[in-house]
Amino acid sequence: MPIAAIRTHRFSAPLHTPFVTSLRRATSVDSLLVEVIDSDGRSGFGEAPQVWAVTGANMAGSQAAVEEMIGPRLIGRDPDDLNANCAIVAKAVVGNEAAKAAVDVALHDLAARRLGIPLPRLLGAPAITAATSSAAANSAADGDGAGAGPGRGVVVATDVTLAAGAAEALGAAAKERVAEGFRVLKVKVGTDAEGDLARIRAVCDAVGGAAKVRLDANQGWTPREAIRIINGISEEGLPVEFVEQPVAAKDLDGLAHVSQRVDIPIMADESVFGLRDLVEVIRRRAADLVNVKLAKCGGLGVARTLLVLAESHGLGTCVGSMMEGPVGLGAAASLVAAYPTSVVSDLDAAWWLSESPLQGGLRYINGTVVLPDTPGLGIDL
Ligand SMILES: [Mg+2]
């Protein structure tokens, strides 16, 4: 029953639509899958997404961290000694948060499978959430086989991203996403400060109140541009929920400067990886909300602590992800199921895949993530 082996698998899965932000243009999800195997032959899975432009995490580096440093420390250990195992992962190397998160999630997935319960239950969520029955019924009506048995599960709301683009195309995409059932749209801006206000106006006009609109500039504005654009949004009365990461990640003074001069709430994303970063944002009153991601902070335990720390200081919370597949998204959605965030979370990344590279796992139904009611993440190779 001890941990017998740790394997890694590289995968690349195409997107149905290019994902464009001020930092990058992606046409595929490229991730390292980590598999932790016990001596009974049960496997748990975790995912380390490759994100050169945001975290610098890459498959070769994550693979080396898992195979050479983290994995050997876990072989032979009791897989049910979960917290101690995760502490070993956290201390095995400096940095490499994506690799650590992948092993941490795989350990949680394996522990949940050994107990025969879904990952959200292991984290403390109820078995089935109230909205499940209607989502499952809708999905059954769509003919995808849900509605009973494996179609049941925990439901978590998500936003959906509109990739950066021209105003007219953004308006059309916004209407499509609302028609598909999404009720929160996240618009990628920051590629061109001069045109951003027109883009935001086009999306707000297109949805006409049928969905919430939030923005993510991905560090694309200077503090001066951010203040001008965000105050322009307020002056026009456009209903924007919040603006994520308006300025450079390391420019906390700039982030605080913007936050103090606009009415629309500001969310820190790339500025906050781990606990020390969040403490600094709190200390400087640099943001109103924080976006917590496993691939930035290194695991489910740290992510939970970030959420609690933010709440305890009056900051709003959101859980997001990198462009990653059903394993990483399943873990992030399981975290939200157990520890609800103050705003609808940002869990759409796996929706962008043209097809899943794996068996089972979460599905997207009517603007929600439905996690399977099967042990662990419910995913197999
Ligand atoms: Mg972001």
TrEMBL record:
Residue numbers binding Mg(2+): D216, E244, D269
UniProt keyword Isomerase, yes or no: yes
Matches recorded under SMART domains: MR_MLE (SM00922)
Residue positions of the active site: K188, K293
Mandelate racemase/muconate lactonizing enzyme C-terminal domain ranges (all copies): 167-265
Entry's cofactor comment: Binds 1 Mg(2+) ion per subunit.
EC number(s) stated in the UniProt entry for this protein: 5.1.1.-
Descriptive protein name: Dipeptide epimerase
Organism for this UniProt entry: Rhizocola hellebori
